[in-house]
Write a structure and sequence with these properties.
single chain; 215 residues; mainly alpha; Endonuclease Iii, domain 2; 70% helix; 0% strand
């Protein structure tokens, strides 16, 4: 059964690899655009948490002109009927923006580059009380979307795929850091076994479940 899954996965990869590689290049370009673009990507991930990538894109489009200056009430007004939790997400974004302004003078790229350890970098975004609305999954999502590699985005689609392949024993998302790291390592081993780039495999599995290669 696993061989059948792998064969289908490789066939799917051949069909999608060009657009997947294009997406990976686009992620790297975001980081080059600087702090505002990086913060916008973080806000996208805040919107995506508990919702969907499509919803995140719609919300970012709705607030793009006020993302750096708008109040929580102004942001909320823009995303009502576009997100399940407009009030909470608006508050998360303003809280996070104020944190970066207050503690880091909004120099987010300098902050990121101050880390030498990739796991510590993700821990910072996943556990920092100044950054509201994301955990390990969305911290990984954020870092991948600004061009950093080696992070698994273990959303429900990826978890279900790994469970179906027999790579993990439960279809439930990891509930803590150690479980997240353990599943991430299994995904890396699986990617190596089937000879598909780890970061590209993450996008491939997600797209096979959703029908889209988004972000």
């Amino acid at each position: 059964m696993l061989k059948e899954y792998i064969d289908k996965l490789k066939q799917s990869y051949e069909l999608k690899k060009d657009i997947i590689k294009q997406r990976m290049r686009e992620f790297e370009e975001v980081y080059k655009l600087g702090d505002s673009a990086i913060f916008t990507e973080l806000c996208f991930c805040i919107f995506t948490a508990g919702s969907s990538a499509r919803s995140g894109l719609i919300c970012i489009e709705a607030i793009k002109d006020i993302i750096l200056t708008g109040s929580a009430s102004e942001i909320e007004a823009r995303i009502i009927n576009k997100h399940r939790y407009p009030k909470a997400r608006a508050e998360y974004i303003v809280h996070t923006r104020e944190y970066f302004n207050r503690e880091w003078n909004f120099k987010i790229r300098d902050l990121i580059e101050s880390f030498n350890d990739r796991l510590e970098l993700r821990d910072f975004f996943a556990t920092n009380k100044g950054i509201k609305g994301i955990g390990y999954k969305e911290a990984s999502h954020f870092l991948r979307n600004i061009g950093f590699k080696g992070y698994a985005i273990l959303d429900i689609h990826i978890i279900r795929s790994l469970y179906e392949f027999g790579i993990i024993d439960s279809p439930n998302p990891p509930s803590n850091r150690s479980k997240y790291l353990a599943i991430e390592e299994k995904l890396k081993e699986f990617a190596k076994m089937i000879e598909i780039d780890f970061d590209e495999l993450d996008l491939l599995l997600w797209s096979n479940k959703t029908g889209e290669v988004l972000k």
